[in-house]
Amino acid sequence: MQSLQPSLPLSSTGTSEENCLVFLQENLLGQFTLNRPRLMSGRAGICYFCPRCGDIWGRIVFEHRAAQGLEFAWERVSCEKHPDALGTVAGSLLTGPLFFLLDYFPRAVLQREFIIHMNRS
Questions:
Q1: pLDDT, tens digit only, all 121 positions of the chain
Q2: Does the reported pTM lie above 0.85?
Q3: Neighbours of 96 (CB within 10 A)
Q4: Residue 98 vs residues 11, 48, 59, 106: alpha-carbon distances, Å
């Protein structure tokens, strides 16, 4: 039986890896390699949507899956300009179940997250 899940490239150790790109608006902020093949299975990445202004202010793109034309998952998180009472940190890529990405984010993304979270308090 043929699998409907996209197959990911294998690393030198034989594990599945996904190259991920982090964008703010249209600007590439950084990239990282994710070695959790079941994460967001069947999705091309994550779009961050501001419910107040309607802007898609950020994206994490799973390169291999996006190239296959898969759909993106949506995260409803306010942009930095529109803090709200959703219980999220406006403009943060670390929402809900995505906190584990902290272990993978490149330095530029970590620095941005640190500043956003420090400014919230």
A1: 333 344 444 444 445 788 999 999 999 999 999 886 566 678 899 999 999 999 999 999 999 889 999 999 999 889 989 877 667 789 999 887 778 888 899 999 999 999 998 887 6
A2: no
A3: 10
A4: 23, 12, 13, 15
SS3 state at 88: coil
Take residue 89 and report the two structure tokens written for it. Answer: 């940190």
Beta-carbon-side half-sphere exposure of residue 37 (alpha carbons within 13 Å) = 11
Half-sphere exposure of residue 18, counting CA atoms within 13 Å on the CB side? 29
Overall size of the chain counted in residues? 121
DSSP state, 72? Answer: P
